[in-house]
Amino acid sequence: MRLRMLNEEQTTTIYRASLQILREIGIDVRDPDTRKRLLQEGCREAEDENILFPEQLVDRCLSTIANRFTLYDRTGALAVDTRHQVPNFAPGLNCITIYDHRTGTHRECLLEDVREAARVCERLENFDMASGLGNPGDVEPSKQALETVKTVVDESVKPLPFIAHDEVEDEEIWNYLAEVAGGWDALAERPFALDLTGPYSPLELGEEACRRLRHAAHRRLPVVCYPAMIPGTTGPVTLDGAIAQSTAEILSGLVVHQLEQPGAPVITASAILPMDMRSGGIAYGSPEYMMVGIGAVDLFDDLGVPTWIGAGCSDAHIVDAQAAAEAGMSLYLASLAGTSFIHNLGFLSAGKSGSLEMLVLADELAGGVKRLAAGIEVNDESLGVEVTRRAAKDHSFIMDEHTIQHMSRAMWEPKLFRRTSLEGWAGSGSAPLQKRIREKLEDLLEK
User: How far apart are CA 234 and CA 48, in angstroms?
Assistant: First the structure.
């Protein structure tokens, strides 16, 4: 199953526009060593000192990117694979605040919240990665990212995404992870962490991003290369224009990355964040967020570059009907986008707040999404012609051996959503979904 937002003619048109931006406008590359390397490889310096990228260099670097991206857990088992038909799910990270389910308030994220989020991610069956959701405010800024990573590693064997404040902290994190893995070679062979970095919009490759991209490539460690763009603020307000500029920025980062080490693992796609023009706030729950996300997947998939997509998040501030509707809509759309790596689950407040309750809700939704993505199996056994022959006359399908063998896989069974009769629901206490979410969350935290 595949839902495309852009056909191949449209992705080609946008790609050509991106190449034009790189060729005629260029990128503000802030790192001197990276600028020197790019000029040696055929780039030119514009009058405003931007670096202009020739199309041939971009095409050459794209040709060296591996078309498969994988992550492992710390036991060595494959956890994320962009070739999987069934999606792999990852939580969001780097939130500013936490929605505290115990008090019903939003507050600063603390290291204990990071610990609880990682513990919940470890125990949710449909999550393939773990994170701490936010930055711990009770840790000094220069140590926040490293302490977050250490805490997640303490609580979970699942692979983890991370964001460092700068290239110094980034290298400290990778050094720590290499020690955990048993050395750099072991970490590169079965990586269990993913560095999130890349250009800034509009059209800037900062010193930090250049060094992080090059360091990861040199060690053959996995990295996401993508900018965060707000259409109408840091890029064109039109969706195709936003994708074109964002793609140009991403391509510049991919060139830097692949020049350092051709074939080093990298993944990308959209971090285009539409803005509600009435409030000025980012709109994670908007249809446009999914439209640009799927469109970027279409473009980079056509280029042969592994992709991921954001979903499972909401602009709501608590886990309510809006949160469930927006998260569900985005997750089901993302599962049809042609990428099997879906992230940002657990976000509220347009990515500013993390929520353990939202993680639990997203896990339930992800279970249904995995069933949808698995598709319909068609073979002689599953077609069941013989069971029709046996059971049609006396309506005995429910007792037939074929039904007993296949019933557990034929239908997805939710853990939190209810399908009981009205009488059964009333008889069980008429508990709303949010109560069941909190009960499951407390159970996960107490295990």
Answer: 19
